[in-house]
Amino acid sequence: MTRIDASFRVCALFGFPASHSVGPALHNTAFEALNLPLVYVAHDVEPARLAEAFAGARAMDYRGLSITMPHKVAALALVDEVDDMAQAIGCINTVVSDNGRLRGSNVDGLGALSALRQAGADPAGRRVLVLGSGGAARALAITIGMVAKPAELLILGAIEDELAHLARDVAERTGCAVGSDLLSDSTLAAGLAKTEILLHCTPVGMKPESERSLVPRDGLRSDLVVFDAVYNPRRTLLLRDAAAAGCHVIEGTEMFLGQAALQFERWTGQPAPTEIMRRVLEARL
Hints:
Elements: E1 9-15, H1 23-33, E2 38-44, H2 50-59, E3 64-67, E4 81-82, H3 84-89, E5 94-98, E6 101-105, H4 108-118, E7 127-131, H5 135-148, E8 152-157, H6 160-174, E9 178-182, H7 185-194, E10 197-200, E11 225-228, H8 237-244, E12 248-250, H9 252-268, H10 274-284
Parallel strand pairs: 1-2, 1-3, 4-6, 7-8, 7-10, 8-9, 10-11, 11-12
Antiparallel strand pairs: 3-5, 5-6
């Protein structure tokens, strides 16, 4: 175990115990591999005490923070600066302290974009279908719209007001062509027929309901890229069906690894040892 003394600065996770299984091992192994004087610890923070937790991090000069649900939105008001992408998404998951000034950002979407690009599936100039309109969908749709500039972005979701809000924000914040519709058998079939990249951003297929999928097998085809933000299990039913259909599949673990690597780089200013981090992640999952 890494020893914490006056020579070490702390990076911390503010969240609930369910979020704590991977992060400390992932980051501490990476810090140790590069011989960096940093240690990553997990704190259980109740929503009512989030402001106190931030005050404590400031007082103890923590180097950075990871923020998980349910704190990502509330944390916006507790930092000194928020970058444009996080403002557009409406929440933060990463904080860096520079001389006591806390800067917030959201690297969830950037982690997914990195995974897509590394897999040879850059969404730039391509037709993209996003399933879902919640937090993960917001992060991916806005990030891809701002950074990658797809030819077309179609969002299908089940919550009408939330869906309309996301589509409006993507159009206004990114300028890319965006369409939206309520998710149904017919809208999904029509969307799949013309999309090149499918991004699944709902909890469907996550343990313990891992044998569920929103996407019927007959809607999948071999020229389709299928990404699933669910990473537990690693191979969801959607990804198993997609692989059987000959699709190019990308696991949610790649997004998790991508955002963790970006956090590491923002805290340290050094390239993340991604292969070491990958081995830790795969062992833990």
